[in-house]
Amino acid sequence: MRLTFVSCEVLARELYFCAATSPHIINIHMIRRGLHDTPEVLRAEIQKQIDSVETGDGGVRPDAICLGYALCGNALDGITARTLPLVLPRAHDCITLYLGSRTRYQEEATANPGTIYYAVDYMERRDDNGSSVVPLGTTSDARRKEVYEEYVQKYGKDNADYLLEVMGGWTAHYSRAAFIDLGIGDGSAIESLAHKEAESKGWRFEKLAGSLTLIRKLTAGEWDDDFLVVPPGGQITVTYDRGIVGCRVGTAS
User: Can you list the domains of the chain with their CATH numbers?
Assistant: First the structure.
């Protein structure tokens, strides 16, 4: 079977690692992480990549297109399969993909709701190649600046300053920094960063064992209930139930 992946670059190491041991022929197209700050732009880029693959990936059409994405700000809502099936994990966000299952994600979210997660791929994939990093679940500096400028135009500088001050209080709700170790590459620098961040804010630090289960199954073509297979002509919908995503059929254009 030939599979083409359209994926966020925060899964680069994991996807290439699992693709190397897959029994299938796999091509991978990466999309930069920074587009998460603008879900509508990300949605358009994902659809553009899908449509490009539909015309022949390297001259050969794959049997299916796999998406290395979770909900990602609802960027997948409305993504359409043309003439090839789309396959995607039923995942809330990339934390689910790093932890290996919806069940474990929910267990962590329930037991430790005030957690900021750190993972190597996510932290090192910055558009500006800067030395500072932004943990999973937070908003980038560039996006905060953009939001601030929008607020200044809409509400004036004083109100914008107040709103950003309130928004900046997100750290008060957190009590744990967790480094997810997937065992690929050297994660010592990111682990150290997470540990120092925890110390500076008075949080506890934990190192969690990551799992490649979902990514391995996706690259191996083992698409069980952990995955949604959208048939040609179908469109991805966000359901917010245990299945997380669903599809409407007969909406392709």
Answer: 2-93+212-249 (3.40.50)
